[in-house]
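Write out the 3D structure for:
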Amino acid sequence: QGQLVESGGGLVQPGGSLRLSCAASENIFSISTMGWYRQTPGKQRELVALIARNGNTNYIDAVKGRFTISRDSAERTVYLRMNSLKPEDTAVYYCSSLTTGHWGQGTQVTVSS
C-alpha cells in the first residue's frame, strides 16, 4: 500500500516563493515518473511538471522558468520549487506517480496580496 504525503503549501504574496514536498514510499518512488498537478474548483486538473527516473523534466509553458521539479532518491522525496508566484498559480497542488497511479492528498497554494 504505497503512500504519497505532500506538504509546503500556504499563503504568499505575488512574487513570492514556496517549495512543495512529496514524500513517497519505496515501492512507488523506485519505479516511478513523478509529477505535480494543480486544480482550481470547477476547473480541469492540469499537469504542471514531471520528472522521470533518469532525471529528465518537463514543464507546461505557464510555469517554465519559474518552477523547478527535482527528486532526492536518498530521501524518497519529490520537490516543486515555485518562484515569482502569480495569483493565477492559486490552486490545490497534487503529487502523483504517473507510473502507478498513486496520488497524494493535495496541498493548498494561495497567491494573494
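The mean pLDDT is 95.
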